[in-house]
């Protein structure tokens, strides 16, 4: 299955979120749209932690079907059982009065047919009927205890779909871009005391974002590179970044590295 049936307890973060949190309660349902690796999910976790929300996470994928979204039968030994999908499960928790966030990861990975099935959850005046068990699930009220947040990464690669207009119109959409360079350096400073290294890595990433590179280095990429550098040295951290790029961009990548870091041994 590709979603967590039981909500996570109020999450904790292994590192501090840098930046101002969005007012999720006031703008739900909201779609965070932007480059991968820029802390969209981390921001939701930080908000949940600060405001005592639990999380119910649905990891969208092209393979998500009716069973994951509405519900499906299964077998345990010789016993048949019915497992509710993410929409009726979310409605149940919303009606329980608990404070929780439904986090839909990578919304644009859902097929057009699967996207249509989410409309009933986002239109709070309606519910969803699970015909297999003859039961209807409806929200009792539009409570601040129940928030819906989705993420969507911008990508040049496959495996994603255009959002249909019906679904898009049900979200408030917030663009999440790359952080300012000083904020990005502050993020890296949680993982290294070498300020010069952090500054050079941010410069390298900025150059991949403002030129013809197909792949653009994310803040997450830089954090992972710093962790490799801490263990194995600069050469291996840069080689880990090199692997992100298509073959035709790797020569240009090393030219940019040489201009920023000099000769790397």
UniProtKB/TrEMBL annotation:
GO molecular function annotation: ATP binding; ATP hydrolysis activity
Segments forming domain ATPase dynein-related AAA: 29-171
PANTHER family from the UniProt entry: MAGNESIUM-CHELATASE SUBUNIT CHLD, MOXR FAMILY PROTEIN
Organism: Desulfofervidus auxilii
Family annotation (Pfam families): AAA_5
InterPro entries membership: ATPase_dyneun-rel_AAA, CbbQ/NirQ/NorQ/GpvN, P-loop_NTPase
SUPFAM superfamilies: P-loop containing nucleoside triphosphate hydrolases (SSF52540)
Name of the protein in question: ATPase AAA
